[in-house]
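U., I forgot to send this yesterday:
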Amino acid sequence: MVRPDTLTEQNSNLADGQGPTECLRRLVLTNFRSYARAELRCDGRPVVLAGENGAGKTNILEAVSVLGPGRGLRGVRLSEMARRTEADNAFSDEGPAAPGAAVHWAVAATVQTAEGDVEIGTGLTPQTGERRQVRLKGAPAASAAALAEYLRVIWMTPAMDRLFTDSAGGRRRFLDRLVLSGDPAHGTRVNAYERVMRQRNTLLREGRNDPAWLAALEIELAEFGVAISAARRDLVGKLAFILDEDSSFPRSVIALDDPLADDLGAQAAVDVEQAFSERLKANRAQDAVAGRTLDGPHLADLQVRHRDKNMPAARCSTGEQKALLIGLIFAHARLLERQKGPKPVLLLDEVAAHLDERRRQALFDEICALGLQAWMTGTDRLLFKGLGDRAQWFSVTPGAVHSDIRPS
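Result:
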């Protein structure tokens, strides 16, 4: 439930065209996907991007998503985001820069914050391989994690409609993206854990029984693993609290299936680390036979049930699963909105396509009640008619974006 003391003010701002305090005011794409160059200027209201399939709507959402830690909403190699039909342009946090350093692609934005406008940008150059450049306020930044100081992004794509029937790995990645939006260091810990686990697996598969080396790797695995489980457990607990509030969408009951997380509820983290490293040592023989590590947070799962029906989400109808997913995304948005840091920006790809009229209106009302900037795509502009003047409208055609008026 949105806090009553902020709801009136937020709705008033949206009606006046002022939008939320923190939002994207300007987005510039250079050599990104299907765009040689595109620029959007926004006023903070929800953004509707309408156009035919293949026009490039999702590419714009992906551009916003790379203005945060990670590899964006498609999760592909950074080099795959480059436009392939024209020569590279120059990069700066202002968009296309003066001639100088050729790049594969660049995304830049003006972010409105409580302290004023901030220029941020990221891009990939031929010299940096798969390591992207990041700029904040006109100066280089050490890593993409620094972007989270000014922008936090949450997204929902059609591929996520299969979340509840997908593998546990898909739900883990979903959960980790939620954690990452509030804890930029989480991605570094997950990557480090997977790197160390691969090293251990290789040693065991090849029969290189070096006790000292294996012990050192297992200590690292335990440290990273417990930190990962602790971050996931913390987020799931907070989300469960938010999901108890009233919502226009079905409420879910969530739980983390992870023995390490369970142990953290009863023991100190240092004791859980020691016990985990000892289990890894005891399991070396069976892990060697399996060719993989059979214990750890890389096997965790996010369990979701429909609260009112007391039914696993995987057994609910397709429409109910979509509604449960939207409810989870909104709960996370409310959580981030209340925490210290920038308010989140929502990216909702084809979100209205499979919702009935009542659910679509509930979606739009919830977005406006949250007072957050949401970017939505769709092939049928009429699906978003219920937003009216509460939204800012754009038409997307191949390689171009045009400011538009709402459908009558």
